[in-house]
Design a protein that fits this description.
- By secondary structure, the chain is of the alpha+beta class.
- The chain has a domain at about 25-90 and about 125-160.
- The chain contains 3 helices and 7 strands.
- A 5-stranded antiparallel beta sheet has the order 1-2-6-3-7. The chain has a two-stranded antiparallel ribbon with strand order 4-5.
- Helix 2 (about 50-70) packs across helix 3.
- It starts with a helix and ends with a helix.
- Keywords: Signal.
- This is Lipoprotein.
Length: about 160
């Protein structure tokens, strides 16, 4: 019984620490990135996640990846915004269970009550970081919103590990 309880606790802890891996969104509104080309060298990138900082970092990572795929050296964020949807992903619950058993001349009855609470300390929901970028080749513009694509990709990928 102790082994079963320990195993259950370990699985619950592992489930709570698992994050959605970086990648494209499977469908509209799902975690991951979407990319739309607006015109030559201008793109809109969105990354949806449950964590605001991770959504920002992954949107920047996607901007760097896309810039490099397009043969560019740098990208500049020309506009952007953060959309927060307050749709809870988990809810509290209460459950009651019971059971009986017998062994030889002995019998027993058990009753249990369980309470489930959402872990993570947030109200749930998703965050979508939306960036509009312009990509370019050559020397990076002298702007606080301009980024070297190779540096961003290297730094954010190393932070993911």
């Amino acid at each position: 019984m102790r082994i079963l309880i320990g195993l259950s606790a370990a699985l619950l802890l592992a489930a709570c620490t698992t994050t959605t891996p970086y990648g494209p969104a499977a469908k509209t509104g799902a975690d991951g990135y979407t990319t739309q080309q607006i015109e030559k060298n201008r793109f809109q990138i969105a990354y949806t996640d449950s964590d605001p900082q991770r959504a920002r970092d992954y949107a920047l990572l996607r901007a760097a990846e896309l810039t490099l795929l397009e043969g560019g050296d740098w990208f500049e964020i020309v506009s952007g915004y953060t959309d927060m949807a307050q749709e809870p992903r988990s809810r509290s619950s209460v459950s009651i269970g019971g059971g009986t058993g017998s062994y030889g001349r002995s019998s027993s009855v058990g009753v249990g009550v369980g309470i489930g609470l959402p872990l993570g300390g947030s109200s749930g929901g998703t965050v979508t970081e939306v960036l509009e970028i312009v990509t370019g080749v050559g020397e990076k513009p002298d702007s606080p919103n301009a980024y070297d694509a190779r540096s961003v990709e290297i730094n954010l990928r190393s932070a993911m590990q």
